[in-house]
Design brief:
four-stranded antiparallel beta sheet
């Protein structure tokens, strides 16, 4: 069982930066692939980024590639999402997710993740 708590969301101006954090409970954090998803009002939940257990591999949605960076610290049970050059289209609730059985090539699929946080709101003003 893993509990995930996101933080760091707030109102920011377009072009600005923000770092989201996700704190995970449990002793087996390094056994999980971690991901970030987001959901804008009236839209479906979308994949943002994922990072492998050892942080050796990262994956990004095309919409954030080159602007966002996902990282993890297994010693601290933390995963981060550094968001740069923010755009109003990035406005959404951002969710942290953990998967203990992610199948190859399916990091962007929400159904592959077993645990979810409650979300943190990011609002980007124009």
């Amino acid at each position: 069982q893993v509990q995930l708590v996101e933080s760091g969301g707030r109102l920011v101006q377009a072009g600005g930066s923000l770092r989201l954090s996700c704190a995970a409970s449990g002793r087996t954090f390094s056994s999980y692939t971690m991901g970030w998803f987001r959901q804008a009002p009236g839209k479906e939940r979308d994949f943002v980024a994922a990072i492998s257990r050892s942080a050796g591999s990262t994956f990004y949605a095309d919409s954030v590639k080159g602007r966002f960076i996902i990282a993890r610290d297994n010693a601290k049970n933390m995963v981060y999402l550094q968001m740069n050059s923010l755009e109003p289209e990035d406005t959404a609730v951002y969710y942290c997710a953990a998967s203990y059985s992610l199948r190859y090539g399916l990091a962007s699929r929400g159904s592959e993740y077993n645990y979810w946080g409650q979300g943190t709101q990011v609002t980007v003003s124009s």
